[in-house]
Amino acid sequence: DKGTYPYYMLKEIDEQPNVMRKLSSEYLNEDGTPVVQDELLDAMKQSDRLYIIAAGTSYHAGLVGKELFEKLSEVPTEVHVSSEFAYNMPLLSKNPFFIFLSQSGETADSREVLVNLNRLNYKSLTITNVANSTLSRESNYTLLLHAGPEISVASTKAYTAQITVEAILAKALGESEGIAKAKDFNLKQQLGFVATGMQSIVDEKETINEISKKYFADANRAFYIGRGIDYFVSLESSLKLKEISYILAEGFASGELKHGTIALIEEDTPVVGIITQSNTAGLTRSNLEETMARGAKAITIATESLSKENDDIVVPDVDELLTPLLSVIPAQLLAYYTSLNKGLDVDHPRNLAKSVTVQ
Ligand code: M6R
After folding, report:
1. 56 CA distance to ligand 1 centroid (A)?
2. Are 98 and 116 in contact (CB under 8 A)?
3. How far is the CA of 237 from the centre of ligand 1 (A)?
4. What phi-psi label fits residue 32: left (phi over 0), alpha (psi between -120 and 50 degrees) or beta?
5. Does the pLDDT value for residue 356 go beyond 90?
6. What is the per-residue pLDDT across 166-209, written as a single tens digit (0 to 9) for each?
7. C-alpha closest to that of 52 among 76, 19, 74, 78
C-alpha cells in the first residue's frame, strides 16, 4: 500500500534510510562485526577471483561492488552483464566464485548464466530481495536485501541495499583474510551516517523538484558524468532518468566526453557532474567546465568536503567507498520529479516490466 504517496517510487526512495538501519541490524553485531555464515566466507576465501553477474540497476550496483571487494577484501573482481556473459563467457580464473545480484531473483538473463554455471559445478551466491526466488533456490548461498517489496518498475531501494550488502560482505571477507583496511572500516558507524545523510536529502526533496523544473522540463537529452565510483553512479542516474522520463540520458566517465560525446552538447543541455572522490574532483570539475563552454547547463552533486560555493546539491560526507549511497538519492529524485512533472505514470513506464523473465 502506498499510503499517502502518489507513487510507489517516491515511497521507496523515502524508505532508504530505514533499509540502511535494517541492514545494519541484520548483518552487523553491536560491536560492528559482520554476521555472515562461515561456510559462505570459506567458499569465497578459496576463490582467486569474484565474478558479479547482473542486469540493469543491479549491474550498476555490481560495479560499485567491484570497488568494495577490491579495496576491502583485496580480491580481483569482475562485473558482467548477464545477457552478455551467458553467450560470451570470458576466460575464467582458476577458482572463480560467482555473485548474482538481482532484486527480483527472477531475471531470465541472470538465470541462464546460473544454469550454465551449475552445470559446470561452480559455487555461487545470490544477493536478492526475494527469499525463495529462482536465483536464490538455484545457487549455493543467499543473502537477502531486507528492503521490503519494491513495486515501482524503477529500482531505487534495492540498489542502495545491494551496495550495502556488498560492503558488509566485502568487510566480512577482508576481515577473515586479516586485511587491515577491512578491520578498520567502521561500517556500523558509517551506515548510521548514511541513514542520517539520506534522511537529510529526502527531507529537502523540493529543492530537487525545482532543479528538475528548471533544467529538465524542456530537455531532450541529458548527461551524467563522473570518474571511478562517480562514473558508476552516473550510469545508474542516467538509467533512472531515461526509463521513467523518456529523456535520452547517458552516463559517461567524465574524461571520455572529449573523445566524442561532447559533440552532442547543445545550448542548455543539462550535464550533471557527480563529485565525491577527492582524487578526481578537480578533473570532473574541469570536464564540466568544458561542457559549459559549449553551452551546457552544469548541475553538480558534490559531497560537503569537496563542495564549492555554487554547487547545486551538496550531500553529507561519508567514507569515499560509500558515497554512491548518498549521491544516487538526488539522481533518483531528479528522475522521479521529471517524470511526474511530465505527467507520466512514474511507476509503470512504457515498454517495461518489473521483472524481466524473457531473454
Ligand atoms: O530483478 P533484477 O535486479 O534482476 O532486475 C534487473 C533489471 O531488470 C532492473 O534493475 C531494471 O534495470 C530496472 N527497471 C532499473 O530501474
Report:
1. 5
2. no
3. 13
4. left
5. no
6. 999 999 999 999 999 999 999 999 999 999 999 999 999 999 99
7. 78
State whether the beta carbon of 82 lies less than 6 angstroms from ligand 1. no
pLDDT digits (tens, 9 = 90+) for 113-159: 999 999 999 999 999 999 999 999 999 999 999 999 999 999 999 99
- As given in the structure block, the three cell numbers for residue 354 are 518489473
- 66-71 long-range contacts (CB < 8 A, ≥24 apart) are 67/228, 67/229, 67/232, 67/321, 68/163, 68/166, 68/167, 68/170, 68/321, 69/166, 69/169, 69/170, 69/173, 71/170, 71/181, 71/321
ipTM of this predicted structure: 0.98
Contact 291, 298 (CB under 8 A): yes
Name the pairing type of β-strands 96-102 and 124-128. parallel
Distance, in Å, from the CA atom of 306 to the CA atom of 324, rounded to the nearest integer, reads: 15
**Maximum separation of any 2 CA atoms in the chain, in Å:** 57
Q: Is 229 in the pocket of ligand 1 (CB under 6 A)?
A: no
Residue 61 Cβ inside 6 Å of ligand 1? The answer reads no
Q: Is the CB of 58 under 6 A from ligand 1?
A: yes
Question: Does ligand 1 come within 6 angstroms of the Cβ of 65?
Answer: no
- CA–centroid distance, 257 to ligand 1, in Å, is 27
Q: Is 171 tagged catalytic?
A: no
Answer yes or no: is the C-beta of 269 below 6 A from any ligand 1 atom. no
Place of cell 558515497: 323
Mean residue pLDDT of the chain comes to 97
For residue 132, the CA-to-ligand 1 centroid distance in Å is: 18
Q: Which of 7, 104, 151 to mutate to test the pocket of ligand 1 (most atoms within 8 A of CB)?
A: 104
CB 115 within 8 A of CB 138: yes
